[in-house]
């Protein structure tokens, strides 16, 4: 298998593990996310524990990966160089949060839920696709 094929296979395996993690943790159910946001009602802390587990896993994983010096399937790491906050970043984060709060889906769980497509999920996916298209068109 060529280097590109191994890299692609690794990407698919990582995506599969991510999707399985979302499904097992219940994060493909928008009611979980909306329950987390309902702090004055029937609050559901599940999302907090899933995010906490992701932060711990990432914290350990980054240290292990960076200790290698370079990735397994690439010549070097591709890390963002921009470190300042700007209006585009803050605006995008705000739109993401508003969309997540209104729909109960963020992009990962939305795509993982496509097998059980509902009208609200379809509307969210269309809006997400339109947002990607508009962002690409409006970017310099």
TrEMBL record:
Transmembrane parts of this sequence: 9-27, 47-66, 87-105, 111-135
Domain of life: Bacteria
Protein name: YeeE/YedE family protein
Pfam families: DUF6691
InterPro entries attached to this UniProt entry: DUF6691
Taxonomic lineage: Bacteria, Pseudomonadati, Pseudomonadota, Gammaproteobacteria, Oceanospirillales
Organism name: Vreelandella zhaodongensis
Keywords from the named record: Membrane, Transmembrane, Transmembrane helix
């Amino acid at each position: 298998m060529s280097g590109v094929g191994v890299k692609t296979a690794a990407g698919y395996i990582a995506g599969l593990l991510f999707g399985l993690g979302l499904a097992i943790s219940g994060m493909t159910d928008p009611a979980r996310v909306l329950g987390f946001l309902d702090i004055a009602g029937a609050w559901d802390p599940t999302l907090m524990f899933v995010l906490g587990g992701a932060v711990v896993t990432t914290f350990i994983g980054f240290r292990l990966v960076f200790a290698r010096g370079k990735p397994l399937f690439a010549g070097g790491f591709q890390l963002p160089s921009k470190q300042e906050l700007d209006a585009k970043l803050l605006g995008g984060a705000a739109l993401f949060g508003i969309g997540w709060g209104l729909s109960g889906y963020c992009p990962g769980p939305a795509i993982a839920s496509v097998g059980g497509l509902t009208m609200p999920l379809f509307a969210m996916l269309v809006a997400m696709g339109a947002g990607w298209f508009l962002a690409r068109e409006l970017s310099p």
